[in-house]
Every structure is written in structure tokens, then in C-alpha cells.
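Bench log. Compound arrived from synthesis this morning; before running ITC I wanted a structural hypothesis for how zinc ion sits in the protein. Inputs:
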Amino acid sequence: MITIITPQGKQIEIVLASELCDPVDMGEHVRAYCHLHGSDHQRSLSITRMTGWGHCFNAACQATVLVAEWNRPAAQRLLHQYYQGLTSAAIPSYQPPHLPSSHRPFVVQPLLLPLPKAIPAWQQEELHILQALDEQMRWALAHSQRAQLYLRGRGIPLQTALDAGVGYLPSALLNRPEMRTKREVVRRWVDRMLFPLNSPFGRGYIGRSLWHWQPGMNETIHKALLERPGSPRRWIKTNPAGWFGVELEQLPDTIMLVEGAFDRLTLLAAGLPASQIVALVGTALQVEWLPSQVNTVVLALDGDDGGKEASSRLADQLVQAGLRVRVCPSGQNTLGKDWNELWQHLGQQSLAPVFEVLSESRSA
Ligand SMILES: [Zn+2]
């Protein structure tokens, strides 16, 4: 067991499941004798299994506990914050004098991330080929009129896309003689715009098909075309996939989550810092992926029912992990279901809610 005090002054006992005294499973809750105040005639300690958080109902004790194994992200975050606080302010003499002040003498063992499932050989090969083509695909975007017209149609300046590492795979690139043995493996990526993804397991890609897109064709019509039987899938991903954003370690203390790759490009085009905006692109939110400096997450998901449902689910998950959460009002209406559509119709003013919630998060 370890007792920590949060920056807000709250005392939390982080315990291991094995420390619980004679626990009894009551469904959603586990009841145990409280080893904190030493009761052995009433199971006054009640812990919610799903969240790991618990409370002692003994009036004289009232302890707040967190069972580390049942909520690793929260335990990890609290321990990390606590030791960081100790070394930076409360006990400066703990700093060995020869180390720079940013160095943390306490090393908190990172909890192990669950290992990804074994990746089939063809997917590994696919990823390797795409990675090797990365520079050429970015060059292709910078030189493809077709891809640039598509971006323009969505209101995204070319430079914004290039700065974010976006590329394009034209058939001409695959038809080069040196691609002869690799062509078939990556054929499904042809005529796609590729967005680099980050995860703890390395770099990946998500690709948006431009199949049969013509200059001037609007997004709704193109989407309907891609949904017809026999059409290529609108989006495909490598394995591992990840989030479209900066490398995880470079995330600042406050980040904003959006759903789609074009939503992120939209916010970057509007002038928001690239490091702050992360697009989930259909990859589940893994709280464990967030480095410990991230303490506030702003959710700016789509305004449709799916987006609202996801938003409240993610908010719960993040709060349980000890993060501060703000939800950005979608501002979305009949003119658009996501930030990119709104941006195309209304321009900068459509993003007012995003700027507002971010500046509030900073001043809070
Ligand atoms: Zn107690």
C-alpha cells in the first residue's frame, strides 16, 4: 500500500488486490475488511470492480482507495504525478545536485502495456513497404494536381497537409520497375491519401480512397459512390494502426480529441497547434497510451448520435483514469456533421466552440 496526496490535497490509498482482507465478490462491488482502520467484524471497504475506486464506510475512517491492478492508468498517473510533485517542489533536497533539475530521481516502473496480437506476415510486409515509400508519397502529394484538388475541395491548404506528414500513392509510383515485387502487397493503397499514425507499437497509416473522385464532386456524392457494392473501402488501416497526431511523447498537457483525419487537418488549417490535436481515426482510445504529462483532454467529437455516445463513454473512461475532461459543444447542425464539413460551409466561425473550450482549459 502507498498513501499519496493529490495536488488538490486529497488522500488516496493505492493498494494491491492481494492486500484486500478476505474480499467478497458482490457483483459490481467487492467488499473487504478495511485494513486501513483495522476492522475485522464488518466489511466496510467497498470497491467498484470496474473502476478500481473504493471507499471505507466506517465513519471514523472514510478512506478513499484505489486498487492498482483494477485501474492501472489511474494508479500509474497518480503515482507519477505524486513523485514528480515531491521532487519538483516539496522535497528539493531529494534532487542529487549533479542532475539537471528536470531529471526525476524517482523512477516509476511503467506498467506493462498489453502486447498487440501477432501481426500476420502480409500486414508486416505491407507496413514496411509503405514506410519505405513515405518520402515518395509526400513528394507525390506535393506534385499531384488531382490530390491537391481533392484537398482544396475539403478546404485544406496543401501546406497544412504536408506539414502533418500526409502523402498520396498514385498508380504511377507503383508502376515503377523497382516496385515489381511489391506492387501486389500494397495495391489496395493506390489512389489513396495516406495519413501517418502513431501508437506505442510504432508508426502506421490510414488511407482514404479517392477512387472515381472527380474535381468538383462533393463529399456526400463521393461517399455514396464508395459505399456501392464492389467499391474499394473508403478507409483502410495498417496493423498496427494508431492515432493521427504527433508522437505520443510530444503531446502537451492539454490535448483535444477529434474523430476524423480531416477534422484534425481542419483544426490545423484554422491555426491550432499540431501537437495539441489528435484524431482517433476509429482506433479505440487507450488511456495507457497517453504520456503522464497529459492531464486534460478536450473531447470534440462529431455532433451526431454516435459522436455523442462516444463522447460520454470516453469522458467516463478518462475521468476514471484521473484526467480532467472537457467536452466541446459540437456546434454541428444541418450544414455539417463534422468539423471539416462545417469549415467548408462556414469557415473560421464554425470553429468558435473549439477555440473557446481550449482557451478555457488553458486558463482553468
Ligand atoms: Zn476503514
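What the model suggests: The longest strand covers residues 192-199. The chain has a mean pLDDT of 86.
ITC booked for Thursday regardless.
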